Structure formats: C-alpha cells, structure tokens
Amino acid sequence: MLILGIETSCDETAAAVVEDGRVVRSSVVSSQVDLHAQYGGVVPEVASRAHVDLIVPVIADALGEAGVTLGDLDAVAACHGPGLAGALLVGVSAAKALALVGALPYVGVNHLEGHLHAGWLEHPDLATPLAVLLVSGGHTMLVEVLAPGEYRVLGQTVDDAAGEAFDKVARFLGLGYPGGPVIDRLAREGDPRAIRFPRAMAGEIDCSFSGIKTAVVQYVRAHPEVVVADVAASFQEAVVDQLVEKLTLAAAQVGAATLVLGGGVAANSRLRERVAGLAEATGRAAFLPPLALCTDNAAMIAATAAFRLAVDGPTPLDAGVDPGLGLV
Ligand code: KG4
Ligand code: ZN
Q1: Least buried of 92, 192, 269, 281, by fewest C-beta within 10 Å?
Q2: Can you tell me which atom of ligand 1 is nearest the CA of 236?
Q3: Going edge to edge, which strands form the sheet with 106-110?
Q4: Is the CB of 263 under 6 A from ligand 1?
Q5: Does the CB atom of residue 166 touch ligand 1 within 6 A?
Q6: How many CB atoms sit inside 10 A of residue 81's CB?
Q7: Tens of pLDDT along 131-169?
Q8: Is residue 128 a contact partner of residue 257, using CB atoms and an 8 Å limit?
C-alpha cells in the first residue's frame, strides 16, 4: 500500500510517500520561513501563492526520491484542516487532481491527527495510553491517545499557542522569526531565575500564554538595561514550567504509560530535557521524536491516511477544506 501525502496547511509545502502506513519512502519539506521572516510571521496570502509555485516540484521530488510514479500509488492524501484556508486549498486541489487522473482514492486528513500519528512512524509499539503534548506555532493541546483513532483532548490553550508566544516575544526583543530556535539558543547564555514570569492556570490542564507575553513586554519596558539573554532564559523557563506542569497533570489523570512530544516547540532543548526528566521521575517511557517528525511534514499525513482509508474509506472528491477543524 503506497500513499502519497500532501501537507500545505501553513508555511511548509510538503509531500511524502509512505508504504503500509509505516515506512517512509520519501519526505520532502520546502519551508517558506525566509519568505515570511521579513514580516515577522506567516502572511496567509503569501503562503498560498508560494504553495502554488512549490507544490508541483515538491510532489515530483517526493515521487522521484521514493522511486515511484503515479501508477504505483494506491491513494493520494492531503491535509484538509485545520490551517489557513487558501493554503489548505492548494494541497487538497493537487491531491484531488492526481486522484482523478490516476483513478485513485482521495483521503482528506486532519492535521492534528497527523501530528498524533507521527509517533507511530518511528515506534509502532509505543505503550498506550499515551499522554501527548502537541505544541507548535498553531496549537497547544494535551491529548490522551488510547489507540489510533481514539483520542481525548484533556486540555488546551485558552489563547495563544506556545510557539506563538516564542515568536511574539522574539519579535518584541528584535531577535527575528521564527522565535523559538533563537530564544532556545540565547537562553543557554542567560539565567532562567533572573526574572520570575507568571506560570498561568496552575492546577489545570488548560494553559494560557498571552499573559506571559505581556509580562515580558512590561518588564523590558520598565527595565531597559536588562540582559536580553536573561529575559530569554526566564521566559523560556516559565513556558516550559507551564507545559511540564500540564503534561504532569494529564499523564497522572489518564495513567499514561508513555509521554510523547509533537509540534515545532518539541524541538526546544529545555522542554525535551524536562520531559525526559519527568518520564524518568514518574517511571514512564518518553518518546521525543526527531525534529523532522515534530514539525509539519507530509509523512504524518500519508501515514494517517493509510489508517483513515482502512477505517472510513475514501473521502468524496466534493469534500472541501475546514480551516477550523478540531481533533474530535
Ligand atoms: O509545528 P511547526 O513547524 O508549525 C506549526 O504548525 O506551527 O511549529 C513552528 C513553531 C514556531 O512557533 C517556532 O518558533 C517553534 O515552533 N519552535 C520552537 C523551537 N523550534 C521551533 N520553539 C521553541 N524552541 C525551539 N527550539
Ligand atoms: Zn502542525
């Protein structure tokens, strides 16, 4: 079973070929980060136009690297939400066109389910239930995974996503876009205890990141002489503290056997260190996926499509995109 997956929900144009829902034959990701950096964030119309330019070469690369042609495929899948409407439409339209030309089933895939599925690509035998912290520029949620398709949202952000907070604080500090990697690097030179930023919603699995962003702005305006590395380290520590507290509560609530990270913020070195420590301290396994599987990619879409095709069958070709699609 060979599935071509396509992912264009935000600022990555990606295509991948996955065999039997498990074996990644190719995974091509073309990031538009440089294109959006000048604006300090993703500009939806710019993203859609870049997807239009990139989608055909990226799909051709994915097929070429896998050593297959359209005729070898069993299905074509695309992420149909959540995400930016115009951006989603590019990938979905390309997938439907290929499905029509190749007389293949089309499968629309939920982006969030894709992120949750990414863990199984590397570790098909992860011990369940999993407590997953899905944390990126667009989402921050804690999910219990009992089995593929069996998900329960335990908590989520009530305002900004954690990655969004990294990006906004970095922009305010004049550190560039995307903010996560820069703050991660700079934080290593700073003192995480220099400034006590708020840890929101203590005792709850839901989380909040807009207050901490405001606290950073107010602190820096009141203390213009502050060492920027100390701000970065203290901000990062407050975000990571909050995320780890939520994961601790979620894992305890469901009796998780394994802790899993997903999304771009899962690349954060301090978060990875703390989650590994939490797993060890509570006798749980931890799966900290390689970055290529955490950030947006199409292998997770193709892998999820294999599962969805088996369970639900093909998606009708007149199905659209759903920018606000939820997990369950
Ligand atoms: O999953 P992703 O590539 O795209 C979305 O679906 O949003 O995540 C991108 C987010 C950005 O907000 C970026 O700043 C953040 O992940 N990020 C990080 C790190 N690397 C990327 N945040 C903290 N530390 C990092 N090392
Ligand atoms: Zn994502």
Answers
A1: 281
A2: 23
A3: 23-31, 12-19, 2-7, 75-81, 106-110
A4: yes
A5: yes
A6: 21
A7: 999 999 999 999 999 998 999 999 999 999 999 999 999
A8: yes
